[in-house]
User: Fold this.
Amino acid sequence: MKDPRPRIAFSVNGDAVALNLDPLRRLADVLRDDLGLTGTKIGCNAGDCGACTVLLDGKPISACLTLAVHADGRAITTIEGIGEGDRLHPLQEAFLTHGGFQCGICTPGQILAAKALLDANPRPTRAEIQHWMMGNLCRCTGYYKIIESIAAAAGAK
Assistant:
């Protein structure tokens, strides 16, 4: 018997994926539960905190608010896909070196939002970093170390 759920095809971190999904499934749940990509965190379930940020065709989105069917035919990047093998992405290295993380809940979303910023503007000012990152909340760091980490990564590019 044919599966009645629609077949959704997209790429995740460069790998082709095709799944039959309930049309009301959230992208965050598919990434975490079906694909085992648990770097995408679910914080507020309302699109306010940024913990679930992933890149959809290079643009940051809230995966907790995005239906997986919206990804059909598109490219998704999660935190698991930005490094190269065992080598960390410069943003990941900068967050480690400059203390841009504490508990780690917001870190994947912070890094992916920052990656989208640096892809669009490789040399942002401190004010541009602060403005861009406003949609990503952190309860631990006070933001100074996050901003320093992003600025350091921008200098390393």
Residues 107-120 form the longest helix (14 residues). The chain is about 30% helix and 15% strand. The mean pLDDT is 94. The beta strands are 7-12, 15-20, 53-56, 59-62, 75-77.
